Amino acid sequence: MRAVSIETGVSKHAEGSCLIRIGDTQVLCTASLEERVPPFLKGAGQGWVTAEYGMLPRSTSSRMRREAQAGKQGGRTIEIQRLIGRSLRAGVDRQALGERQITVDCDVIQADGGTRCAAITGGWVALRMAVNRLMKAGDIKMDPLVSPVAAVSCGIYAGQPLLDLDYAEDSEAGVDGNFILRGDGQIIEVQMSAEGATFSRAQMGTLMDLAEKGVGELVAAQQAALA
């Protein structure tokens, strides 16, 4: 893993917030509580966790246009925020959450590979803080978070398996993937693809082993930040 730091309580107004740094990638994550649920869940006795994701114009080496200026979100943005939302929900008992929604906003301040993984890892910290606030106020009696959720990228670069690729490694990797796991070892999602190369089942197993190691380190960083 590259150097990992998670600074909590960085937003005055959000119910939960953190700034996560993984190498040179930096993502601001905030969690906002609302005492309502989407219409399709009304009266179901379940809560909802969703996410939004965006990159600031100079989070990359050249300025990108704001999506709001373009009038619509790009396909990559939509895909990533759906990934963040379903990843975080995999660690939530939505019945215990009750009929309320928590929205996790992930804004990339600086990108150097692994932004979606950093957003998921930091997003869970912000979510944990928001839930802690609910529990402290007595609004919920049982902890709805069943396990931490974290994510890391792995790939094969110059023929070698690597953990936590930066942008230069990721852009040249023959195989790369994102691994989202819970702290109890359960797998939420694996996104793997080959680019100009293929990979064997044995290599996939090696990358899975690396991902488990990396997620273990990230969960330890989450717990330390929340202590």
Structure description:
- The protein has 227 residues and is an alpha+beta fold.
- It has a single domain (4-226), classed as 2-Layer Sandwich (Ribosomal Protein S5, domain 2), CATH 3.30.230.70.
- Helices cover 34% and strands 30% of the residues.
- It contains six helices and nine strands, in the order ββββαααβαββαββα.
- The chain has helices at 67-70, 75-89, 94-97, 115-136, 167-172, 201-226, and strands at residues 4-8, 16-22, 25-34, 48-55, 101-110, 149-157, 160-163, 175-182, 187-194.
- It has a five-stranded mixed sheet. Strands 7-6-8-9 form a four-stranded antiparallel sheet, with helices on both faces.
- Helix 2 packs across helix 4.
- The two termini are 21 Å apart.
- One of its GO terms (biological process) is rRNA 3'-end processing.
- It comes from Allosediminivita pacifica.
- Homohexameric ring arranged as a trimer of dimers.
- Belongs to the RNase PH family.
- Pfam families: RNase_PH, RNase_PH_C.
Brief overview:
The chain is an alpha+beta fold and 227 residues long. The chain has a single domain, classed as 2-Layer Sandwich (Ribosomal Protein S5, domain 2).
Keywords:
globular; 34% helix; alpha+beta; 6 helices; Ribosomal Protein S5, domain 2; 30% strand; 9 strands; 227 residues
Distance between the termini: 21 Å
Q: What's the CATH architecture?
A: 2-Layer Sandwich
Radius of gyration: 18 Å
* Count of the domains: 1
Task: Write down the overall geometry.
Answer: globular
The number of helical runs is 6
Helix content: 25-40%
- The helix-and-strand class reads alpha+beta
> Spans of 5+ residues with little confidence (pLDDT < 50)?
none
Percent of residues in β-strands: 25-35%
pLDDT averaged residue by residue: 95
Give the CATH H-level superfamily: GHMP Kinase, N-terminal domain
How many β-strand stretches?
9
Strand order within the widest beta sheet: 1-2-3-5-4
Write the element-wise H/E pattern from the N-terminal end onward.
EEEEHHHEHEEHEEH
Biggest sheet, in brief? Answer: 5 strands, mixed
CATH class: Alpha Beta
Any idea of the CATH topology?
Ribosomal Protein S5, domain 2
